[in-house]
Write a structure and sequence with these properties.
- The protein folds into two domains: 309 residues, Rossmann fold, CATH 3.40.50; 60 residues, Arc Repressor Mutant, subunit A (Orthogonal Bundle).
- α12 runs antiparallel to α13 and α13 packs antiparallel against α14.
- It is built from 18 helices and twelve strands.
- The termini are close together.
- It is elongated, with a radius of gyration of 24 Å.
- A four-stranded parallel β-sheet has the order 4-7-3-8. It has a three-stranded mixed β-sheet with strand order 2-1-9, with no helix packed on it.
- The longest helix has 24 residues.
- With 435 residues, the protein is of the alpha/beta class.
Length: 435
């Protein structure tokens, strides 16, 4: 395991090396204090330029690179707004497309209004918006999903500056969970809807989305959806409060040279069609699954294990985007970045929801104290069963799980047992990883 997610310190983003030229281009447009936090959110908008493209996941299923939802969580005035500028640059082609589509709609509406009551009205033009407004209504969201499905299965991209906007888009807070599930799993909208013009369709939801909110808003909004799969389907990027250094952060200039270079990458994504198998990325996903199982055993935390499964899928999809942007070539640096994305997502969830995941309900500060804990690291290098039992009880874990945990740790090679002394000793392999 490369990172420790049980501390208050965020896993440090690895060096942006070979094959990561897209991030070398984009990240300098952000202030230095926000580069690590916003980096995971850039792929949702980038991937919305891909259509008619699938990648094989290690479970042998084919996945489109949609259903990507990433939330940025930091304090008010913490720098979340920098994402908007970068997204607008990434989505410039979509903006131009949407402006032409809107003009078609405006002209149609003018024609409809100019016709008398007894005159035949013109048929509404087929229009689809790739980058709809954040305050979209549920009816417009579904209607546009239908249009995008007809438009070669194009992905809608949304950037929600407030998490509450999801209620309006989904048709109410009770529908948010189902919509997120359908978006993540690329399912249909879920129900036919009756309108004045008849019954609408039930389109496949191809959507990517970024959501911005404060820690308190995130906890309040998702409080009732912690254990139904909603939390796992969203990747989170959390930034804790920093020092008051009294300096105004510097951002990029977004000049013509930058935009021209960015457009080269967008064209590469738009041109990507067909099916791909990225073996090094799939091997990494398998390795991460094994690492997450080991981490869950060290912490004896089933919730962490459940969350990690979708964290791997979320990071894997972003790895697929990197693969295409790098000319369909994989590098070690790309793998290190994808691995970091998994740990950073889990660390972020820990910091925001840790206590709630243990059925508590306190402050963010308490959440940061209540996440998964590596119990083996809190024991001496040589210890006995009673010490682990006492530690488990102090963490509100059942006493009768002690023997099983010792068996798991032994089987994984974390510890060895001396039948003569009855003591357990941490192995050199474990100590090497832990250090």
């Amino acid at each position: 395991m490369t990172y420790d997610i049980t501390t208050k310190t965020a896993p440090a983003m690895p060096k942006i090396g070979k094959g990561m030229e897209i991030l070398k281009l984009l990240l300098p447009q952000l202030s230095k204090d926000m580069q690590e936090t916003i980096a995971p959110l850039l792929f949702d908008s980038l991937a919305s330029h891909m259509s008619e493209t699938e990648f094989m996941y290690p479970d042998l299923t084919w996945k489109e690179i949609c259903g990507m939802i990433t939330g940025i969580v930091t304090r008010s005035a913490g720098g979340k707004g920098q994402l908007q500028r970068l997204v607008e640059a990434i989505m410039r082609v979509a903006r131009q497309h949407d402006e032409m589509q809107l003009q078609k709609l405006v002209e149609w509406q003018k024609t409809v209004k100019s016709k008398g009551a007894n005159k035949e009205k013109p048929v509404r033009p087929d229009v689809s918006f790739w980058f709809p407004p954040a305050d979209v209504t549920n009816a417009a969201f579904i209607q546009n999903a239908m249009a995008c499905e007809q438009d070669n299965g194009h992905t809608q991209y949304y950037n929600l500056p407030e998490v509450e906007m999801a209620d309006r888009m989904c048709g109410g807070h009770r529908q948010v969970t189902q919509t997120i599930r359908n978006v993540y799993d690329k399912q249909r909208a879920g129900a036919l809807r009756a309108t004045a013009e008849g019954v609408t369709g039930n389109p496949v939801l191809r959507v990517n989305m970024n959501i911005s909110c404060t820690p308190g808003e995130a906890r309040s909004f998702f409080k009732r959806d912690l254990f139904n799969g909603t939390l796992g389907r969203i990747a989170f990027s959390y930034k804790a409060s920093g020092n008051r250094d009294g300096r105004i952060p510097r951002q990029g200039k977004y000049d013509e040279a930058f935009l021209a270079k960015l457009d080269e990458y967008i064209v590469r994504l738009q041109a990507c069609k067909g099916r791909f198998i990225v073996k090094p990325l799939n091997n990494l996903a398998d390795k991460l699954a094994a690492d997450m199982a080991a981490l869950a055993d060290l912490t004896d935390d089933d919730t962490l294990w459940d969350l990690s499964k979708r964290s791997i899928v979320n990071a894997w999809k972003k790895g697929c985007v990197l693969y295409i942007l790098n000319g369909q070539t994989w590098t070690r640096s790309m793998g290190e970045f994808v691995e970091w994305l998994v740990y950073y997502d889990l660390w972020s969830k820990n910091q925001i929801f840790g206590d709630l995941l243990k059925n508590g309900d306190t402050s963010v500060a308490e959440a940061q104290k209540s996440g998964p804990k590596n119990m083996l690291s809190d024991l001496p290098d040589t210890f006995n069963e009673a010490q682990l039992e006492a530690l488990r009880m102090s963490l509100d874990k059942p006493k009768d799980g002690t023997k099983r945990q010792l068996r798991v740790w032994t089987a994984r090679g974390f510890i060895t047992h001396s039948a003569q002394t009855g003591l357990y000793t941490k192995t050199k392999e474990y100590l090497g990883v832990a250090n």
